């Protein structure tokens, strides 16, 4: 049925031994153990008691970051040394593709929560339908609208007069992020952020075309512009958060509107930060190392896929968080 | 770097730094067995407390920690990693690949698991004890009433998710990219097919679980209100997100088991698998349906009637592809030249008991009837029939079946058969009476019960102790085989075995298929 043959078939490069996995494990476990304890100190700890949680977390993050740096550097060097067969390169392509799919599903969980709350929970709390039969006992007077400008807790007079157990005080924002609340269209930051992110998807594509044309200057220029747009986006997002906390009364504690707003835009912003960093690394590799050729540039192409993914997520955010 | 035609490195560094799929598979298998014993210990404590009515041995709060940790350790620590270990060992050999597609990532996927479970187990010694909200950790028990251990637990779940996602991406890349020339998709062994689909499910739903625990973390520490009605959220939202993960999760556990059974039954029937194509399509259909049935876990939570009906009918549909599978296995055996070695016995045990578990699942899927069964011992009996007699029995069959290929030695058949019969009988003594007490109204997750349930509970406990002890026999048999088993010289080991893994030497060399094997184009499927 089968026989071992020695016909010309490229050898798949299987690295012999690697310390990367163990180092990354140490980094990851210390990071999360430290982070968990930092949070526990914050919520359950006695004030004034010092702990070494932060030290553990930062040590872990440092080890983790250093390991990832070494790991990626090694992978890049192996590729430059010609050790990667076409088949191995395809493994990296598949890996990146399915990783992005897993990210899509992560965002899906938060979008799912948003849709469920807006379409079902909100009306039920306000007394609509079968789900609303408890309204007159628990949340009498609560009116649902989106953005939700008054929490059920506030509708009944605050945490003190609420009948059931709760895990906090949920205040209300006095101003939402909706377009109608902006004083002028050009002062509505999400619009600018949308323009910036959509343009950056175009610029990164132009950079890619430059690379395919063997035009190094064009590639560096347009990739640099993309990184710049990414940085501007993150800065504007930070400004928006500052506005929300300082002037809108919109915080993580502002009920489900604040929760979904900050978690969705926050995770997205974090992904923009990661994508910007990834593209910046590719820019550095191209400018300083002269890496990438027209037919071998997956480090860049994978990062650009990630960038397009982040852009698509933003389109949905813009639609469901800011407009609708 | 360097040539890789030599054997494994010496000492601990072999295991810490390895990139070899067989080493990593071995580590997964041993780790999962250790977790099986740990989770089993928790189960023994539960059954000891329930041996008689009244409070006997442990505090109720500790009892809750035991049910919680038993479930978490068995699902995430024992069953899932055991099948990942099997995938690591077998998939490259079955498709004629030199190794997994991303070997370093593979090692990382494994090594983050032990510290994660160490952290989880360490919560037992924290102030306030381990998480106690059940393995499904519903809000607000796991948020409003959470102690510090829940924070550790949340990060453990994150690490397990990272491990599963990386492992699955690796499996998908291996299957899609590393098949030997001529090994088309519809020629792949069914174990490879079921794992490909399982890996897809894992990549799709582990991030959703990560989202759920992240929302918990934010609710506990940062004042968000995802699961708090006072802020406009909803505790039921947690259940929806959890079960959107949780239902595909049960197929993540059982699909690789289907794959194992589909390899073993043909080998001992000396016939090719009946209905190979329909097996593949049925697996895909089950995976698709698993995404649209999650709320059948939540019939009693107060859903709109339209929702109850939709989830009821969608759930019943799953019986169709599952039935296709069961009939295909039976038809494979029909007029086969059957022999009943230990792996075959466990597979037949699987077939009978899993089908019972499937039927009780069908009973539970009926929304109006479920109002009676919900959160009763009937549910406990149902899911142990599919988790233990389904997943664990098939995993045990797999170990007996492939162990001679892995270590080049044959296990003691008498001891193996003894292990099967004790397991089979003890399992039924443990869990069959739970159907009765459940239907009569005994709730799950309660350390005490009404007097009329006493006899059946004592039976259950005795069965559980015997079942637990019989696993030590299994452990002994495996170790005795590795240390001093009778050497096997035949590459094929079993005369009915089919597939590329049986064409390499026994024991399997450290590196196999560095050059892809040639596949006979006339061969139908493996």
From TrEMBL, chain A:
Subcellular location per the Swiss-Prot or TrEMBL entry: Membrane
Residue stretches spanning the membrane: 20-39, 55-72, 92-117, 185-207, 219-239, 259-284, 305-323
SUPFAM superfamilies (alphabetical): Cytochrome c oxidase subunit III-like
EC number(s) from the headed UniProt entry: 7.1.1.9
GO cellular component: membrane
Record's keyword terms, sorted: Membrane, Oxidoreductase, Translocase, Transmembrane, Transmembrane helix
Domain Heme-copper oxidase subunit III family profile: 8-324
A Pfam family: COX3
Membrane topology: Multi-pass membrane protein
Organism superkingdom: Bacteria
GO molecular function, one term: cytochrome-c oxidase activity
Family stated for the protein in its record: Belongs to the cytochrome c oxidase subunit 3 family.
Protein name: cytochrome-c oxidase
From TrEMBL, chain B:
Organism: Pseudohaliea rubra DSM 19751
Coiled-coil residue spans: none
Membrane protein topology class: Multi-pass membrane protein
InterPro entries for the chain: Cyt_c_oxase-like_su1_dom, Cyt_c_oxase-like_su1_sf, Cyt_C_Oxase_1, Cyt_c_Oxase_su1_BS, Cyt_c_oxase_su1_dom, Cyt_c_oxidase_su1_bac
Top-level taxon of the source organism: Bacteria
Domain Cytochrome oxidase subunit I profile as annotated: residue spans: 15-520
Annotated pathway: Energy metabolism; oxidative phosphorylation
Statement: the UniProt record of this protein carries the keyword tRNA-binding: no
Reactions that this protein is recorded to catalyse: 4 Fe(II)-[cytochrome c] + O2 + 8 H(+)(in) = 4 Fe(III)-[cytochrome c] + 2 H2O + 4 H(+)(out)
Pfam families in the record: COX1
E.C. no: 7.1.1.9
SUPFAM superfamilies per record: Cytochrome c oxidase subunit I-like
Protein location: Cell membrane; Membrane
Enzyme class, spelled out: translocase
GO molecular function: cytochrome-c oxidase activity; heme binding; metal ion binding; oxidoreductase activity
A biological process from GO: oxidative phosphorylation
Protein name: Cytochrome c oxidase subunit 1
Sequence similarity: Belongs to the heme-copper respiratory oxidase family.
Cited function: Cytochrome c oxidase is the component of the respiratory chain that catalyzes the reduction of oxygen to water. Subunits 1-3 form the functional core of the enzyme complex. CO I is the catalytic subunit of the enzyme. Electrons originating in cytochrome c are transferred via the copper A center of subunit 2 and heme A of subunit 1 to the bimetallic center formed by heme A3 and copper B.
Keywords: Cell membrane, Copper, Electron transport, Heme, Iron, Membrane, Metal-binding, Oxidoreductase, Respiratory chain, Translocase, Transmembrane, Transmembrane helix, Transport
Transmembrane segments: 28-48, 68-91, 112-138, 150-178, 190-218, 250-268, 280-299, 311-331, 343-367, 379-403, 424-442, 462-484
Entry GO CC: plasma membrane; respiratory chain complex IV
């Amino acid at each position: 049925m089968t026989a071992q043959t020695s016909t010309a078939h490229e050898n798949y490069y299987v690295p012999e031994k690697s310390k990367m996995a163990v180092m990354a494990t140490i980094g990851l476990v210390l990071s999360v153990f430290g982070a968990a304890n930092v949070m526990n100190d914050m919520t359950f700890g006695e004030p004034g008691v010092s702990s070494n949680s932060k030290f553990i977390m930062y040590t872990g993050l440092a080890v983790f970051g250093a390991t990832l740096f070494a790991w990626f550097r090694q992978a890049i060097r192996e590729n430059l040394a010609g050790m990667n067969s076409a088949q191995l390169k395809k493994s990296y392509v598949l890996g990146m593709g399915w990783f992005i799919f897993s990210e899509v599903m992560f965002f899906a969980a938060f979008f799912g929560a948003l849709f469920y709350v807006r379409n079902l929970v909100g009306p039920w709390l306000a007394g609509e339908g079968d789900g609303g039969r408890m309204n007159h006992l628990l949340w009498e007077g609560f009116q649902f609208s989106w953005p939700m400008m008054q929490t059920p807790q506030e509708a009944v007079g605050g945490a003190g007069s609420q009948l059931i157990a709760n895990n906090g005080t949920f205040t209300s924002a006095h101003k939402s992020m909706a377009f109608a609340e902006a004083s002028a269209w050009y002062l509505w930051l999400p619009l600018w952020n949308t323009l910036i992110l959509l343009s950056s998807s175009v610029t990164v594509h132009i950079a890619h075309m430059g690379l395919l044309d063997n035009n190094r200057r064009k590639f560096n220029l347009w990739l640099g512009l993309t990184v710049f747009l990414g940085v501007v986006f993150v800065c504007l997002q930070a400004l928006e958060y500052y506005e929300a906390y300082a002037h809108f009364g919109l915080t993580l504690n502002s009920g489900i509107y604040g929760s979904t707003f900050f978690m969705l835009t926050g995770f997205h912003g974090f992904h923009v930060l990661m994508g910007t960093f990834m593209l910046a690394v590719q820019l550095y590799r191209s400018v300083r190392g002269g890496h990438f050729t027209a037919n071998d540039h997956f480090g860049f192409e994978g990062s650009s896929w990630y960038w397009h993914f982040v852009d698509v997520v933003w389109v949905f955010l813009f639609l469901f968080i800011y407009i609708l | 770097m360097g040539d890789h035609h030599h054997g494994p490195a010496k000492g601990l560094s072999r295991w810490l730094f390895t990139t070899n799929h067989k080493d990593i598979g071995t580590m997964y298998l041993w780790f999962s067995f250790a977790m099986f014993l740990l989770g089993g210990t928790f189960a023994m404590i539960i059954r000891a407390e329930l041996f008689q009515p009244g409070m006997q041995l442990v505090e109720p709060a500790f009892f809750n920690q035991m049910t919680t940790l038993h479930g978490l350790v068995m699902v995430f620590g024992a069953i899932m990693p055991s099948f990942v270990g099997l995938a690591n060992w077998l998939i490259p050999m079955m498709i004629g690949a030199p190794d997994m597609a991303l070997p370093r990532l593979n090692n990382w996927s494994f090594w983050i698991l032990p510290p994660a479970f160490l952290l989880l187990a360490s919560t037992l010694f924290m102030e306030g004890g381990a998480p106690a909200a059940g393995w499904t950790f519903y809000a607000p028990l796991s948020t409003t009433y959470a102690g510090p251990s829940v924070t550790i637990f949340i990060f453990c779940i994150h690490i397990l998710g990272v491990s599963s996602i990386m492992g699955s991406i690796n499996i998908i890349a291996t299957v899609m990219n590393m098949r030997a020339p001529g090994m088309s998709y519809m020629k792949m062994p069914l174990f490879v097919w079921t794992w490909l689909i399982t890996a897809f499910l894992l990549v799709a739903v582990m991030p959703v679980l990560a989202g759920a625990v992240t929302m918990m973390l934010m609710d506990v520490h940062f004042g968000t209100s995802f699961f708090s009605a006072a802020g406009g959220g909803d505790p039921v939202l947690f259940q929806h997100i959890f079960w959107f993960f949780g239902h595909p999760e049960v197929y993540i556990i059982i699909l690789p088991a289907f794959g194992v059974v589909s390899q073993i039954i043909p080998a001992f029937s000396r016939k090719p698998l009946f209905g190979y194509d329909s097996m593949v399509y049925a697996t895909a259909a089950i995976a698709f349906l698993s995404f649209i049935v999650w709320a059948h876990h939540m019939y009693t939570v107060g859903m709109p009637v339209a929702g109850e009906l939709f989830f009821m009918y969608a759930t019943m549909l799953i019986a169709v592809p599952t039935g296709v599978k069961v009939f295909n296995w039976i038809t494979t055996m029909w007029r086969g030249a059957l022999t009943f070695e230990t792996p075959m016995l466990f597979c037949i045990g699987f077939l009978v008991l899993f089908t019972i578990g499937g039927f009780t699942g069908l009973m539970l899927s009926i929304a109006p009837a479920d109002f009676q069964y919900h959160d009763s011992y009937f549910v406990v009996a149902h899911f142990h029939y599919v988790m233990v007699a389904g997943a664990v029995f098939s995993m045990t069959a797999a170990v007996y079946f492939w162990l001679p290929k892995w270590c080049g030695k044959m296990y003691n058949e008498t001891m193996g058969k003894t292990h099967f019969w004790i397991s089979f009988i003890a399992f039924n003594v443990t869990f069959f009476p739970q159907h009765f007490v459940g239907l009569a109204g005994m709730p799950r997750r309660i350390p005490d019960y009404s007097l009329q349930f006493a006899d059946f509970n004592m039976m259950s406990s005795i069965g559980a102790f015997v079942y637990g002890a019989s696993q030590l026999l299994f452990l002994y048999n495996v170790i005795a085989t590795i240390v001093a088993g009778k050497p096997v010289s035949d590459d094929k080991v079993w005369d009915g075995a089919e597939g590329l893994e049986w064409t390499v030497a026994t024991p399997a060399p450290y590196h196999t298929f560095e050059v892809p094997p040639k596949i006979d184009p006339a061969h139908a499927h493996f």
